[in-house]
């Protein structure tokens, strides 16, 4: 189960890097899949960069903490970070988006993140057995 949790956690860290980059470099293309239409244009399109960097930093935070071996702390951060897709889901629903997009993309993401957080938080700490000290002559 630990291997599954590791893969899931790494994927949940990589995904925001991917679509965050997409929002930074191709905002209008990425916005089509978010669920709110129409997206801002002109000066207001600067929000693409805001969303993009938010997603990239989110992914980097999760991956950095996980890479440092802080699985439990990663679980706590994952649970807190699940508020992002929950809020995105609410925004899509309250701004004319479809329920299918809100629930199928953002809601499902939140559920998977909370599941991963739960898996990380329920892991038992592994303690290495002490190594015998060799006799000195």
Layout of secondary structure:
Blueprint: H1 2-25, H2 27-31, H3 47-67, H4 71-81, H5 83-94, H6 99-122
Helix pairs in contact: 1-3, 1-6, 3-4, 4-6, 5-6
Summarize the structure.
This protein has 137 residues and is an all-alpha fold.
Q: Any idea what the shape is?
A: elongated
Runs in which pLDDT lies below 50 for 5 or more consecutive residues are: none
Distance between the termini: 45 Å
The percentage helix is over 70%
Number of helices: 6
Strand residues, percent: under 5%
Averaging pLDDT over every residue, what do you get? 90
What is the makeup of the main sheet? none
Oligomeric form: single chain
Q: What is the structural class?
A: mainly alpha
- The count of strands amounts to 0
Rounded radius of gyration (Å): 19 Å
| Element string (H = helix, E = strand) | HHHHHH
Characterization of the model:
With 137 residues, the chain is mainly alpha-helical. Helices cover 71% and strands 0% of the residues. It has six helices and no strands. It has helices at 2-25, 27-31, 47-67, 71-81, 83-94, 99-122. Helix 4 (71-81) runs antiparallel to helix 6 (99-122). The longest helix is centred in the N-terminal third of the chain and has 24 residues, at 2-25. The protein is elongated, with a radius of gyration of 19 Å. The mean pLDDT is 90.
Keywords:
single chain, 137 residues, mainly alpha, 6 helices, 0% strand
């Amino acid at each position: 189960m630990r291997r599954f949790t590791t893969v899931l956690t790494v994927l949940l860290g990589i995904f925001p890097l991917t679509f965050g980059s997409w929002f930074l470099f191709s905002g209008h293309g990425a916005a089509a899949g978010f669920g709110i239409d129409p997206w801002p244009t002109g000066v207001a399109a600067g929000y693409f960069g805001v969303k993009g960097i938010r997603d990239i930093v989110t992914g980097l935070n999760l991956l950095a903490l996980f890479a440092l071996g802080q699985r439990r702390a990663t679980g706590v951060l994952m649970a807190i970070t699940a508020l992002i897709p929950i809020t995105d889901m609410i925004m899509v629903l309250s701004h004319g988006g479809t329920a299918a997009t809100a629930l199928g993309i953002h809601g499902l993401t939140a559920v998977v993140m909370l599941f991963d957080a739960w898996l990380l938080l329920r892991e038992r700490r592994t303690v290495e057995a002490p190594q015998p000290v060799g006799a000195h002559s």
